[in-house]
Amino acid sequence: MRRWSKFIRIFILFAGVVCIGFLFIRADAEIADRLPLTEWEYYWGDFPIGSDGDLQWESSADQEGIHDSHWLPAQQTMNLPGRGDWNVLWLRTTLPAISWKDPSLIIQIYENFKVYVNEQLVYQYGDVDNRGYNAYQGTPERVVLLPAEQEGGTLYIKIYSGSPNIGMLDYPELTGYSDYILSLHKQQAARFILGCFYIIAGLLSLYPFYKLRLKPFLSFGGFAISFGLYTICRTTIIYFYYDNPQVWMYLELVSLIAGMASAIILIIQLFEDSQSVRPMKWLWKVHLLYGLVYISSAYIGKVHLLTGLFYYQLLLFVTMAVTIVYLSILSFRRNREAQIVLLGTVCFSLAGSIDILDSMFFGMNIPSISYLGMLLLVLCLVIVLIRKSFHMINRLRYTEKLSLVGQLATGIAHEIRNPLTVISGNLQLMNKQPNKRDTVPLMLEEVNRINEILSELLYLSRTQPPTFEKYDLILVLKSVVALFRSQSTEQPIHIHFRNEEEEPLLIWCDANRLKQVFVNILRNGIEAMPEGGNMEVAVLRERDGVQIQFMDEGVGIDVNDLPSLSMPFFTTKANGTGLGLAISHKIVEEHGGELGMFSRPQRGTMVVIKLPLRSRVKEKQGSLPINGRTSQS
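RE: above sequence
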């Protein structure tokens, strides 16, 4: 446990350093001086090409260029009027006086483009002359280094787009190249660090998966690493280290789809006990199937990337809505982990929806905030995984203790039972002698008590799984209640059985073992009421299970003793063995259920048993007995 506490402290410290560094970097980020170019003219179609293969820039007696009268003033930067069937757009402007020693043009364009200064090509982004759908390279902000002395020169931009959108996202700006690089690194370093943080968090989660073999940690690793890569691909500074837009574009798409599929799988594994998880199991398969078809079709040029991305964004909306509804259902059932994950999912969904809607419909160029929602979601998932790991560690420790007790019980039982057999036989012979009959019953009673203790010890050492069959739980409970009602006690004990369901309540269980649990709990409740009282047994039907409540009016249990009641040999009775509740806990866990106790001193105790309607073990095929009768499963 100390090692895990140290691991958690290191992770929290690392997350805190990342958040503080993020704030400092954002506060220190300065935008370089920029000069926007707002006066533009446009022309639809391509320029004529002369016999020498060069573009015919101007119309004259010896060349068929584009006359100035065909250039129209651009009142906007995106989707200019008069497009028709054209996928090629030309833009031009006059460069003003430039004061920078290393002038550059900052531009963001749908989709691929060429930049000319004074009829000379100075930059090309993507395959502008390719008329295939796979020419799309994305729309990152690009920096174009211009010639140093071009005051009064003409700047031409040739744009090709096979999508409905064509043009510039905003007016281009002139700035100094070195100033721009410095300010860009300051602005995007925080996002880049967050991407690295996600990747490191995902790699760290592989350690508990290796140690505990918990699948949610593996899914979290895939989720965090994928979205770490996605966050890094969404920055512009990566192009200064490897300027290959197509590689970053496909890596971004693969990371997004893989991250969403991993996130859905992670939620399924965290809350797999619920039957309402079934719709979620289809979602991650839909994401992977869509991603495989979409990316492969786009790569070979059968589908335009922007068209496929539009439909995938619609799928993201559906996924976020289904996930929020599913987590909300679990949250209403007071599932603490579901409430934590729901908080992170809602924040991430709101931030992601703003980014998606802006890119799909509004085009307001709102700064991306999805990576901030992702940070909160990652932290919420880490909290839930830590809670799950602690719960698993406690269960492993409890199982280990039971195993040790079982081994000890096996050895003790086999060593003691042999002499007990001899003692019991001799006592029966002594019972036939008249002068020994007064002491013999007391000795036989003690021998029977030792046998009872040994039987309970041997049960803890059993490794044979329960035999699951379909039984009517109501009949099992009624038989146990009838057994105690028939017993006479010195003080009046009234046992009330309340059942909200009139129909049989069939569950997969080992009826004999459940009877042992019910007998232990009812006996404890009756013994806790030495002066008599009421004992109520209630059955409540839930969505995916059943809840049995045992409520007595006894002396109650001290709050400090409640956590220790399930431990072997712990008892509050003068003559108790401390094994009854330990065995009961083990039986209920074998059925995939939970046993909880709530008590107030001198007010009474309530024991709550939750059982699933269907056992996790594979159901037997063919006919199965139901309460002694045969029925088809």
